[in-house]
Hints:
By secondary structure, chain A is α/β, with parallel strands linked by helices. Chain A has helices spanning 4-13, 42-56, 74-83, 111-131, 152-169, 195-205, 224-234, 259-271, 294-313, 317-325, 329-341, 345-354, 361-368, 370-377, and strands spanning 18-19, 61-65, 87-92, 135-138, 143-144, 175-179, 189-190, 209-214, 237-242, 282-285. Chains A, B, C, D: It comes from Streptomyces kunmingensis.
Amino acid sequence: xxxxxxxxxxxxxxxxxxxxxxxxxxxxxxxxxxxxxxxxxxxxxxxxxxxxxxxxxxxxxxxxxxxxxxxxxxxxxxxxxxxxxxxxxxxxxxxxxxxxxxxxxxxxxxxxxxxxxxxxxxxxxxxxxxxxxxxxxxxxxxxxxxxxxxxxxxxxxxxxxxxxxxxxxxxxxxxxxxxxxxxxxxxxxxxxxxxxxxxxxxxxxxxxxxxxxxxxxxxxxxxxxxxxxxxxxxxxxxxxxxxxxxxxxxxxxxxxxxxxxxxxxxxxxxxxxxxxxxxxxxxxxxxxxxxxxxxxxxxxxxxxxxxxxxxxxxxxxxxxxxxxxxxxxxxxxxxxxxxxxxxxxxxxxxxxxxxxxxxxxxxxxxxxxxxxxxxxxxxxxxxxxxxx
Amino acid sequence: xxxxxxxxxxxxxxxxxxxxxxxxxxxxxxxxxxxxxxxxxxxxxxxxxxxxxxxxxxxxxxxxxxxxxxxxxxxxxxxxxxxxxxxxxxxxxxxxxxxxxxxxxxxxxxxxxxxxxxxxxxxxxxxxxxxxxxxxxxxxxxxxxxxxxxxxxxxxxxxxxxxxxxxxxxxxxxxxxxxxxxxxxxxxxxxxxxxxxxxxxxxxxxxxxxxxxxxxxxxxxxxxxxxxxxxxxxxxxxxxxxxxxxxxxxxxxxxxxxxxxxxxxxxxxxxxxxxxxxxxxxxxxxxxxxxxxxxxxxxxxxxxxxxxxxxxxxxxxxxxxxxxxxxxxxxxxxxxxxxxxxxxxxxxxxxxxxxxxxxxxxxxxxxxxxxxxxxxxxxxxxxxxxxx
Amino acid sequence: xxxxxxxxxxxxxxxxxxxxxxxxxxxxxxxxxxxxxxxxxxxxxxxxxxxxxxxxxxxxxxxxxxxxxxxxxxxxxxxxxxxxxxxxxxxxxxxxxxxxxxxxxxxxxxxxxxxxxxxxxxxxxxxxxxxxxxxxxxxxxxxxxxxxxxxxxxxxxxxxxxxxxxxxxxxxxxxxxxxxxxxxxxxxxxxxxxxxxxxxxxxxxxxxxxxxxxxxxxxxxxxxxxxxxxxxxxxxxxxxxxxxxxxxxxxxxxxxxxxxxxxxxxxxxxxxxxxxxxxxxxxxxxxxxxxxxxxxxxxxxxxxxxxxxxxxxxxxxxxxxxxxxxxxxxxxxxxxxxxxxxxxxxxxxxxxxxxxxxxxxxxxxxxxxxxxxxxxxxxxxxxxxxxx
Amino acid sequence: xxxxxxxxxxxxxxxxxxxxxxxxxxxxxxxxxxxxxxxxxxxxxxxxxxxxxxxxxxxxxxxxxxxxxxxxxxxxxxxxxxxxxxxxxxxxxxxxxxxxxxxxxxxxxxxxxxxxxxxxxxxxxxxxxxxxxxxxxxxxxxxxxxxxxxxxxxxxxxxxxxxxxxxxxxxxxxxxxxxxxxxxxxxxxxxxxxxxxxxxxxxxxxxxxxxxxxxxxxxxxxxxxxxxxxxxxxxxxxxxxxxxxxxxxxxxxxxxxxxxxxxxxxxxxxxxxxxxxxxxxxxxxxxxxxxxxxxxxxxxxxxxxxxxxxxxxxxxxxxxxxxxxxxxxxxxxxxxxxxxxxxxxxxxxxxxxxxxxxxxxxxxxxxxxxxxxxxxxxxxxxxxxxxx
Lengths: 388, 388, 388, 388
């Protein structure tokens, strides 16, 4: 049986990065429902993220999205974060909201557009230098909507060339994380639709290029934990973008649609060294809280990852390995389910109390008055949102 | 073998309704790429729709969307359409772009919101009276994003009550067409997710409530032509919203993702009386042309339906029935494929020439100078789009 | 908060029916891996089923499959069951393993084949009279593999006619339960592919025709609990065939692939009167244990349904309704998740002890010596399997 | 515009390999419907395959499946084939129908089972030496049914080790083709579920290890032609297993479910050198004709690939490239659709006549008397089937 003290220590050292855009308004193509108190600046997003960390104790990093979080002085922004007890994390690029990118960015047929897109990515590395961020995360909206619209292989060649230019520019401690996504906004092909494509491109770039698994970006029926296990085996898992979905990508709170899947993913992480500090797996949220209150939704999401991690750490791996060796299917499955069926919330409440935190982060947030304060104070200006 | 003259006559009498919103800007949640020359008013949308009819000869009806096409005087708008050779068609309601509708419209927990939504639907019937439209098409964005968010059965009760209030108001020659959609913008449940739910609600409303099949609104693997056949058997197929998709709903041009599926659907329509005038099946497009030129895309879409219809009409139904009776799987399939593999474009070119049309509608449109004219003239003002 | 005594009482009265074929050999089209000790007769299947009931206390009914469980004297078989503490349950027909059924059974183009198939179904009702079974469950393998192979609507007409003949024959307390399945063994259409088709056919037959939801028979992304809620609202949910799957139908142990989905389904059952005795919902397993030990797998499956039921009964419905009324998405979801995240195993162990059962049914089975006994005794003869 | 003479020359040189098992009985897990006249020996399968080649002119190779086609003297079998105008092709291994393989073959936890499986694969290479076959095609049924059943990474390690042992044994002109499959018969994980896994394993083995794309083995919504294009770009496309499906894998005739997809796949083949002799892409059928007549179904399938190839060769690639360069989405798509919508059957009839073949292969087969002859002569003995 796992040692509870070791489990607690592992949980105490867990770090989950929250996305600056999760604090702003978002919506579907049909409607964005604005919420009161939503941040208007990068600083206000950091203020909110700091609250999430204050109450959960495991969310000290905040991912930036450029240009949504563009500021004049990134070092000052980093200092601002530090004052609030958090730090700037992964830099996310945006090569999909400019009119030039109608037919793609780094894969665009026109070299001028590709240069512009690569230029933006290089700017992001400059920002990383200023913020001390380790990771550049690329999600590319590149792709085509109709068969014949462009040449699949030519686009792949352009992708390789563009990524190589960015990879060259990275510092020794910086990484390029390449996300994949089956579809949307491109509806016939995306240029990086699956882990295989991302892996293939990363292999050719070099060691500091790694794959990001966004849990919402797969075809129906895909076994995500299998991919996670394979990438860990290859040393190519750069990180996660956590969220969940019932149908296609829709950025619901991680663990809300299929908590058992989240557990299985984290079970593979735990069993293959993915929680070791030197493995450098980035655990990030990438979500949109369209109709639910944003800060409590982020807190709930962080807790969902934490609870699933606790369960994964509680798997009796010796018993599991023994049952596997014996070909005892039911016992092996039962060992796993035993951990999953455990209610880990008392353990986590205990852990929080030991760390001087309120055992109930959501209640603590609601009691803190922060929500009332931001609703009252954040009046006027333009609320942050995907386009803001 | 089908009689070619009869096939031509059937094709000549075909009517495909185009959607006013297909002429305006549209996009994904990530970005709307604006196009030059896009209409700014309901009248300009009718101007564009008239061009589609001018060159195809089978698209005389234009579906309205309220409030996107709100005008002061609908009778005047109908007259405006008539002058341009087209007529106003189905009225589409919108109960998803108002802040009140965050948790639904006709299924909302709050009776005040439901009253507002029903009020809008009743207003749409008033507009139908003014425009002479036969059909009110309801696509409801109602649903929930998270398990537990609302009560599924209570929402269904509210749906039934709201629809009954609208049904009551219909004139004797008017219909309520209820669309279904698996997901989006609701991501856990929609309140009318499948044909079964729509059928069940329509059955209870009465004869003038019928089901709309949007070809993009199904779970992966759904056999759409089976549904079409069943609804025709029950006298409950009100119409189609045509479009296509490779993944989830994405409103590509009908016939562009799976032309064989479109053929199979129209084969069921042809074989079950769906092209008979008295069956009253409305053949509508419901598409968004995010990155392709809008008017030529609508022309191409109309032609795709026309070509698939021609193939469906060419099926040798006697030979098919004979092979089916004999259990000759390969021959039965071959009879169907023989029609599908036929190149019907020469037949359609001939038909167009007989009708005094240019045999190549897309080329004719490009040669007409209309695109250059609207790009030059439609400057200033606010372009039409989903939110406009 | 739910009253624990009431929850326990509800759990104590729960009844889960196990399928006779789950005790026999099964496999995929590639291979059947035979297991030692597998029953060779209907009686031996009842012996095994009796063990499942002995250790779980909630599985007193055994579903029969005709002709796999054909015996000369069904009254004697019922008496045999009774002696072992169980009773005969639902009768399942088989119209798919005879050469005549190559192109269907009750939907076959040839009236002779349809008569044969209907004759078998009528024989099943005779058996029900002898066994005292309430329900005839029809899963039809009818369908087509290729477009054009047969006429969809004609097949639906034949289906309606065949079912009507069977419905006529039912006694006043007997029901016809019509299962639906998206695909397999028919690969282009099945004749009852979805709940809508089953509902439509059942509506026309009458009150004693009801829909069976097999949890493995849906398109990817289908919200099964929505269907369950709707059918309960209509009084048309006849029962469940429980199993689970990661991809297409594959009959894994219920709750093993998506335990949260199972919980959500049972939450709708609990919230809409589905556990009330007078609702008459049949809770059945329909599984195949291809590579795992069969009896312990059935025990585990019964426990999985029991655990999910316990969680569903623990939902604080007052708190849920309050949060729903207030549009508090996060709280409503949290109320549901709170029940789901509860470890109900201690409660169930307690309940079993109160009932004089071993708190750990799987361990009790292994300690009982039954497995060793059947492996030793059931030598020679032909093992039961799908074709046996 | 493509030169018709060149298109004809390319079509005349096309080679499609038919599978020996496609001539035998097959079925679903529910039932195998036996057909009269089905072969009883490897030789009789070759006789049937020779008929397919006789009437199509492009199917001179026959894939073997070991042990289904085990004979004492493979050189004699090769000579037998040659006498009938065909030759032995790819050798397919079988590591899934032995009781030892319940938990896998080359990935099995027990080294003894792995040794047995590798031994079988080495035997297959011996057979290749005798038959002169170039390719060993591995489809592995390895995987797990339940989470926890075995260790994903350990299985991947065993897979790599087993494959390396086989790769070592290959002659310089022999290849190892590794197929992938999302699911079935393993229902939780397969050990080679997607192209990425196959690619990763093949990369490490060396140049003569390549990926096989079975068109039926993907998750819903997967863009297969994208994978084909990528593998061609990498020089890693070993070949195709053609078939089609509407839902999960079900081995329908290629081109029968989505002929447009087949065209798009072959368009990528044509555009990326995949038809060049030196690219060595193996074009194989892998199908089961459960309810349709087997030999005509194989002929029809060969013709479906041929027709789709003809369309792909007719794409005006200059016009396509020009439209792509200009970002003219509609024209680019129209160029592709123009080729797809062409009825290529007259061209193929012409080609066959030029080659001295009957222009209608199916009719020619039916007129040949072969079917009557085999039905009359092949009486007694055991029919070939998956297990025979």
